[in-house]
Amino acid sequence: MLDLPSSPDALTIGRRLRHLRTAQGLTLDDLGRRVGVTPSLLSLIENGRREPRLALLRSLADALDVSVTDFLNPEPPSRRAALEIALDRAQHSAGFDRLGLPAVRPGKTLPLPVLEQLVGLHSELARRDLEAVATPEEARRANTQIRLERQARDNYLPEIEKLAEDMARKAGYTAGALTHRSVSRMAEHLGFAIVYVDDLPSSTRTITDLANGRIYLPPASSPGGHGLRSLALQAIAHRVLGHERPTSYDEFLRQRMEITYFASCALMPQSAAVAHLQQHKKEKDLAIEDLRDAFGVTHEAAAQRFTSLATHHLGIPVHFLRIGGDGAIYRAYANDGLPLPTDVTGAIEGQPVCRSWGVRRALALRDRSSESYQYTDTPAGTFWCSTQTGSGTSGQMALAIGVPFSSATWFRGRDTTNRHQSTCPDEACCRRPRASATARWQDASWPSARIHQQVFTALPTGAFPGVDAREVYAFLDRHAPQPTET
Question: Does the predicted model carry a pTM greater than 0.85?
């Protein structure tokens, strides 16, 4: 498939000029004399090396007895012209520069089959380049960049906030939890119907049939199921936010962040959520569990939504942590100065948090039915946090929302006497074994290490990483409405 622009660029204009000139049997000299410019200038224009001024375009249109709009059509004038443009662009890419090969001039003497083959080869090289950058290192770099950008904006995206709330209100939302019916109406307003199926490909969470206006969801998302309305909202968000097929892993992750944010805003609309939080702040009784119950969402969804609203609307800097049973970070955000552990690249994923932090100590508590609270003294100051533990598909996990000591006064659980000290990243804090234990066991032990398979697994590739396109297309063939005979 040729990658063509939605508006004409210099190269497309040039190819249309060449097509119109040669169709009338004119040479560059002939046309140059008619409009009073040199043939060399016209050659530069036809090869996309010079963008013509509007006055010159008008003169050229008069000389060729056509309209200016004939030059401005974004579609190339012929299949050959489209291939020539594609080859020219490919040979000006960074990927081609790295090959160190001479460029092939896509002139009229180049046979069409050769041109077809060259464009096909460049398309395949571009695809492989895209797959090559989708490495774990690239994903970590992209994740880090997105996290820092969110931190700089206090994790608040006003455009998406307004868009999501407007759609929810138009779908009938007034207060409390967003209903499944309201979610269905949001889809209907975009021309889509929500269909629940039990045979979604294992590599997908949802599938949108753009041709027939259907959003397929698993049964767990249907009313009476687990109520995962966010899946439908995330599928809707792709359409609302005008997402195109991602061309890099960075773009894929950004789209995932945006659709998750949209779903959160729709499930907990800004006006209602802020009113709830402001009232509880006034009462000095802020609690994630109350936000969770007021809007019928998961504890993690409520905690992440709190990070989007706390700083912008309540003036409270905040941090969020989700860790696994081994203490490693799965997801985190902080704009309150909490010293998140990072690797040498600045990434936080997979880094172990201090054993003295409340989020990790909560995993060792016997009573884990309710939130636990803790103050932690760190080299960056004292922080208060509220932690909820639970179990997921990958084992134990813990979620924490925390704030600096000065902001703890607004939260339920601020009167806890549970307090610990952390000096991480100093290894003597919680990573380095006691000297006596080292002396006793260093040469008298031989542990068998558990291998983390993801270390050896290539990052999923493709426009939609990890998705099995063959399964998806077979699924759509099974479920698409059959054309009616006339």
Answer: no
